[in-house]
Write a structure and sequence with these properties.
The protein is about 30% helix and about 30% strand. With about 240 residues, it is an alpha+beta fold. Strands 1, 4, 5, 6, 7, 8 and 9 form a seven-stranded antiparallel sheet that branches. Strands 2-3 form a two-stranded antiparallel sheet. Strand 8 and strand 9 (about 210-230) form a beta hairpin. Helix 2 (about 75-85) crosses helix 7, helix 3 crosses helix 6 and helix 6 (about 130-145) packs across helix 7. The protein is globular, with a radius of gyration of 18 Å. The termini are far apart.
Length: about 240
C-alpha cells in the first residue's frame, strides 16, 4: 500500500530517486556560494545559491523510501507535491513556464475581470514580460496557493510528469554537460530566461527529524547532466 509522506515526515524519511531538476540564471554562473564553478560537478546542486529550489523526480510512478528501518513506498505525485508546497514562488513561476501547466485559467476570468480590469494572469506568468509583470505573477501564485492549493498543485504536478511535455521526457534534453561547461555556458549565454539543468543518477534525498521544510541530500551517484530546452531558444 502506498503511504503518505506527511504521515512519516516527522519521523524522518530517506528516498531513492533518479532525477534532480535545477534552475540556473543565464549564462550559467562561474561561481556560487561554494566557490568557483569550472565543471559540471561543481555546478551540481548550486542552484540554491541563485534563489531557486531543487526538485527531485523518479523514472517510475512510485518512490522507494525508508523510515526508522522500515521500507516504504510512496506515490511519485505525492512526492512531487510535497516538494512544490515548500518551494519559493519564483521556482514555481519557472516550473510553470517550462511545462504545459495552465494555471492562469484556474480562477474564472470574467469574475476576476469585473473586480480588476487589469487582471491578466497569462501575462503576469510570462517570464519574457517586465519585472513589474513578474511581481504580479508571483503574487498571483501566492494567491492560488492560499485560495485554491488543490487545483494549483494538481495542474503543476500533472504538467511536470506529463509524458510528452514533462521534465522526464528526454526529447527535450538538448545538450549534455560532459567536461564542456565553458562551451555550454557560451552556447546558452544569449538566452533571456533561466536554464533548466536535469541531472540523472542515484540520489538519496531525505527529510530529517525536526526539519520538514525541504529535502536534504548527502549521498548520491551523479551519472549525467543535461540542458533541457523546452523550445525556449536556440543553442548558439
Amino acid at each position: 500500500m502506498l503511504k503518505k509522506i506527511k504521515a512519516f515526515e516527522d519521523k524522518g524519511i530517506t528516498f531513492g530517486v533518479s532525477h534532480l531538476i535545477e534552475i540556473f540564471p543565464s549564462p550559467l554562473p562561474d561561481s556560487s556560494d561554494n566557490g568557483e564553478i569550472s565543471s559540471e560537478g561543481e555546478l551540481f546542486r548550486t542552484s540554491n545559491s541563485f534563489g531557486f529550489d531543487e526538485l527531485y523526480l523518479n523514472d517510475t510512478d512510485t518512490i522507494e523510501g525508508e523510515s526508522n528501518g522500515k521500507k516504504l513506498k510512496f506515490s511519485l505525485k505525492d512526492f512531487v507535491q510535497w516538494q512544490l508546497e515548500r518551494m519559493q514562488p519564483i521556482t514555481l513561476l519557472h516550473l510553470i513556464n517550462k511545462t504545459c501547466a495552465s494555471v492562469d485559467s484556474i480562477l474564472d476570468f470574467d469574475t476576476e475581470y469585473e473586480k480588476d480590469e487589469d487582471y491578466y494572469p497569462e501575462g503576469w506568468l510570462n517570464v519574457y514580460e517586465s519585472q513589474e509583470m513578474r511581481e504580479k505573477g508571483l503574487a498571483y501564485i501566492e494567491r492560488l496557493r492560499k485560495e485554491v492549493p488543490k487545483e494549483l498543485y494538481e495542474i503543476l504536478v500533472d504538467a511536470i510528469l506529463d509524458k510528452e511535455y514533462g521534465l522526464l521526457n528526454t526529447d527535450w534534453y538538448e545538450s549534455e554537460l560532459d567536461d564542456n561547461l565553458d562551451e555550454i555556458r557560451r552556447a546558452y549565454s544569449h538566452w533571456d530566461v533561466p536554464l533548466m539543468v536535469v541531472s540523472k543518477g542515484k540520489f538519496l534525498p531525505y527529510i530529517e527529524v525536526g526539519y520538514t521544510h525541504n529535502l536534504m541530500m548527502d549521498d548520491y551517484n551523479l551519472k549525467r547532466m543535461y540542458i533541457r530546452n523546452y523550445d525556449e531558444g536556440d543553442r548558439a
